[in-house]
Amino acid sequence: MEPAAFTEEQGVPSMVENAEVEIEEVLRLLEVLRAKNSELMEAVGPHRPKGDVERRGMAFMEMELSVIVGFLMTLSSQNIDGDMRSWLQQLYGLSSRIINGILEAGRRRHRLRLRVAQSFVCSSDSDWLSDVMLKFYRLSEHPCRYTHLLASSDPGLPAQAPMVGGLPLVGIDGPIKKLLKWLVPWEETDSSLRVLAVIGPVGIGKTTLAMELHNRIRLQAGGGHHPFQCSIIAQMSRRTNRNELLLQDILSQISDPAGPAPSSYQSQPKIIDLLVHQVSERLQDKRYLIIIDDIWEASDWETIKGAFPDNNHNSRILITTRVQSIEWSCCSGFQMKPLNQMDSETLLLAKTFGSVDDGYLTDDEKLFCENILLRCEGIPLFIIGMADWLKEQFQQQQHLRQFQGQEEVEEQNKFAFAIHSEEGDVPRLPKHFEQALSTIFDDLPSKVRPLLMCMSMFPYGYKFEKGRLFRKWLSEGFADWEEAEYYFSQLVHGNVITACVADNSTRSPDGTEDCQWHVNHFMQQFLTSKSADMGFVFTSTTLNLAAASATCHDKETRTMPRKLALHHPDPSIPSLLETVDLSETRSLSLSGAVSRIPLDKFVNLVVLDLEGWENLQDEDILLVCRSKLFFLEYLSIRNTRVRKLPREIKELRLVATLDVSYTQIKTAVMVPHDIRCLHNMHTLATIDLSEYPASFIYALGDLEYLLVLAITWCFHQCTDGSYSEALLSSIPKWKCLKSLTIHCGLGCYMEFLESLSDISPHLERFKVTIGRFAGLPKWIHGLRFLSFLQITICELGIDDLRILRDLPKLQCLILGAMPKLIYLQLNFCACPTRHIRVPLGITNLRRLRAVTLCYNLRYTNSPSIKMTVDSVIKEVAEHGNQIDLFINDIKHDHVQAVDEETDNATGTPCGTNAGAGYEAQIVADGATGVIEVEITEAES
């Protein structure tokens, strides 16, 4: 199968399935393809119809081929693993199909575009070239996953030693007391082996906690008596044979070896099995404590756990790990929490100044320390590392005070303690920072590393939802949806990506967004530096550094990075962009106050993320659409001031993700034909349908590849049958749909959706905000992959509960959520006490400020009235906010100050378990003004 030997008549031989292809074969084939591509560029002139499109596409292919060839020339056959070989096969197959398509077109003298289009079976003749080019873009992005093969690394790098020396052990007493009870429960009847995993990110203090536990057990023993007959501390290595090394270390620490010597075995099993057997025999009759520090793969524990027998001697195993999934194997887990504000400050001051007194610090210096602690997020490793850096800063200040005037010192202070930069204020991370974070990065599978490096495209402190991150990964070609789920879970379980603490200030306008995630500031700073070193992503800071380096080396021409993220205003960036070839950039991300960015010159973008860009105007979107970005697949203008989408948006025919969420787009500009032109769309969020005709909704049904859709639905569309029929017609056509979100207006009744006859069986998320259903739609029972359901229903029946119970993947269920409710009025009447309908859940209305109860005074002594009032008073008393409670227009000021035993306004003790039927009226804070809606008892 020698590509160099093919003839014009025969073409390139097809590759046998699963056949191995060598690097040299692929390189020879690519050289042929590059030659053919050059011939086509000369043959296709701009005077021909769509000639510019063809020439642009071929120039795009030339650039992508150069990237691939450059990477292949750095490899050798020894560097190829299984995943790399699969990539080579894909590359060979795509290249051979293109060459054969070109030859076939030449033989039959047909139009080249049509013939090659047929060879790729593209859906649109006009888009075949863009489709082929994007295939090469995907393949050219792939090599960054294998950069680790070219870098030298020490697989035996020792794990970082705990940094305790002389520092106060702050925030550790509580966990120590809990774990000591778990470790030494001699009075309990259960004497079986217990295994506990201490879980947390690198640097949070897992090792310090484990060592302190071991020390305190020794101190408590007293008189030489130790509660364990065998006490061992072992640390997991980074070497490939780490399990063998660990077991050998444990074996060497066990005294009085028991059982037969290794030489007595009749057969020699695998070394790991032999070691497991030897350790198990020597521990069989002992009460042992074994601390294993830093297990970093769940499979490691599965391999070695057979070495630790359950001998009913109250033995204990304590594991430290940053991998969440190990807890599931161990059955028990202790989650390490970051230090609180007080402990963090104590550690920082003690390490920096040797004292916890900050009285001698200036206000600027105190503010500086507070901001440092904010970025450290309570992680001791970061606090200690920043303390070292901070000590250097203060020493420099002291030096200045000795040799310079006060004005110079104050000016230096402004520079040294200013922390307004979005891209980090520490010129470089301390060495042990680099080592710890590099260990995390290097431990990740090769496929996951570029996904993590994508985080350097985000602004510092950026909080993101999982779905939005997935869509960027898809557009970059790093993973499909299923792979994204798996890789994301690896990053979460490894504590690389962490969930954000709830913060109302960052919630989306409807208050019902998914859980938000983020990457620690220092991890992102590390990723930014790492990405720049690898040429993967450049930010404002790293781009300037790269430009300065190129100038120092007298490089006459500069090439633009393939991925560029500009979030920090820098006056030098616009002029720098004038000196580089912007056609080589494939991904551009802009936000904040960045200005003077020539969007029309980034002609070969695949990803354009303008989320949160303060300077984005309607004219910029029009410019993007008119710039003929033939290869653009991802366009986000989320959270910007854009007011309308131009009709020219249809020119971006390959756009698969269009995110217009939280913009000012209200006017209907697109027509059904426009949306049908975007036939490759797989994500559309969030499109306001309030002023679009029903025909537009029918046209949405033609977007057959949709994976994610978010729409806004208003009241008049619920009452107009043509709109309801259009939506009912379109939903069954989205056979691949995974996420459907409908943001409804006030008063929207969505019962018409209960008549759906068909919906994508792949649906994972179904979310309807504000709009209500009479009951749970029956078709939900067939959604076997549904993991997230948010829906408001008037009555939840037994059959509905059975449907919810039988959803195998359901993880999050929200029924009748009203996160923005501030005023609740309940109008109710007496009913027989056998109908227990007590209003519950008031404590879940986090923004509630006032509650009003209204009932006829004739029924004051009715048991149902009393019991309902009792229930409401109890919930108001337990609410975290200060609630104004009115009962029949009488304000009760001291409800939240009394305990549960205080009689209520009706004279009945709180907590009685009966209720009343009632009607309810709500006044909630909407997007603008005050809104009145009706609410059922199920929602309250």
Automatic annotation (TrEMBL):
Superkingdom per UniProt: Eukaryota
Domain AAA+ ATPase intervals: 192-377
Organism: Urochloa decumbens
InterPro entries named among the record's database cross-references: AAA+_ATPase, Disease_R_plants, LRR_dom_sf, LRR_R13L4/SHOC2-like, NB-ARC, P-loop_NTPase
Keywords, alphabetical: Coiled coil, Repeat
Protein name: AAA+ ATPase domain-containing protein
Residue ranges that the Swiss-Prot or TrEMBL entry lists as coiled coil: 16-43
GO biological process, one term: defense response
Gene3D superfamilies reported in the protein's UniProt record: P-loop containing nucleotide triphosphate hydrolases, Ribonuclease Inhibitor
